[in-house]
Design brief:
By secondary structure, this protein is α+β, with helices and mostly antiparallel strands. It is built from five helices and eight strands. A hairpin with a 2-residue loop joins strand 7 and strand 8. The termini are far apart. Bound molecules: coenzyme A. The site of coenzyme A has 21 residues, from helix 1, strand 5, helix 4, strand 6 and helix 5.
């Protein structure tokens, strides 16, 4: 992808805190990121099991229950990430139209800064097969290969951590 292309310029992204009005945009990003990006690493049945949001009110409540950030360009949200109280990064999803141009890198920098402000010394995450190399490239190491069950399907991911300096 041409990073000089104005539509995909890294500098076109900004980070801001999530607001409840962003809930449906985050559902859309979550579903598309799995169906169109993570689908290269998981089977159609696994994708169907993972890319499901049955209860949109429960989804909205979860997003508002912990610090969450939106990365956006002038057209609106293109990705989101969050930080649970003990330093676990639960969600990190970027729209398929804006992959590989630094959106998740900006989000992770924000998550790391927020974790440091809270006095946390370590971040953890359960990284998908798709996200593992992104996190490794940003200083995370794999602690364990995991098998998780979602709606009757078995999916592989990686428990990862990064010590903050
Ligand atoms: C993982 C994800 C969040 C990364 O978002 P992104 O905005 O494309 O990431 P960035 O552009 O900030 O960074 C991309 C970096 O990761 C690296 N990277 C990402 N995926 C990679 C892969 N499969 N192989 C090699 N490198 C990869 C790129 O080389 C790039 O590194 P560089 O900037 O040093 O060259 C995004 O691909 C995504 O939404 N994936 C699908 C959903 C998912 O699996 N989410 C994680 C759930 S745990």
């Amino acid at each position: 992808m041409n990073s000089d292309d104005g539509r995909h310029s890294r500098t076109a992204f900004t980070i801001r805190p999530y607001s409840p009005a962003d809930s449906e945009a985050t559902v859309e990003i979550f579903l598309r990121a799995i169906r169109e990006v993570a689908s290269k690493d998981y089977s159609p049945a696994q994708v169907d099991a993972w890319a499901t949001v049955e209860d949109h009110r429960a989804w909205a409540a979860r997003r508002s229950s912990r610090p969450t950030w939106i990365v956006e360009n002038k057209t609106g949200p293109v990705g989101f990430a969050d930080l649970e109280p003990k330093g676990n990064l639960d969600m990190m999803f970027v729209c398929p139209d804006h992959q590989g141009v630094g959106a998740a890198t900006l989000l992770l920098a924000k998550v790391e800064a927020a974790a440091k402000e809270k006095g946390l010394s370590r971040l953890s995450t359960d990284a998908s097969l798709t996200a593992r190399l992104f996190f490794e490239g940003r200083g995370f190491v794999v602690l364990a290969r995991q098998i998780v069950e979602k709606r009757g399907q078995v999916l592989q991911n990686f428990r990862m951590e990064k010590f903050l300096r």
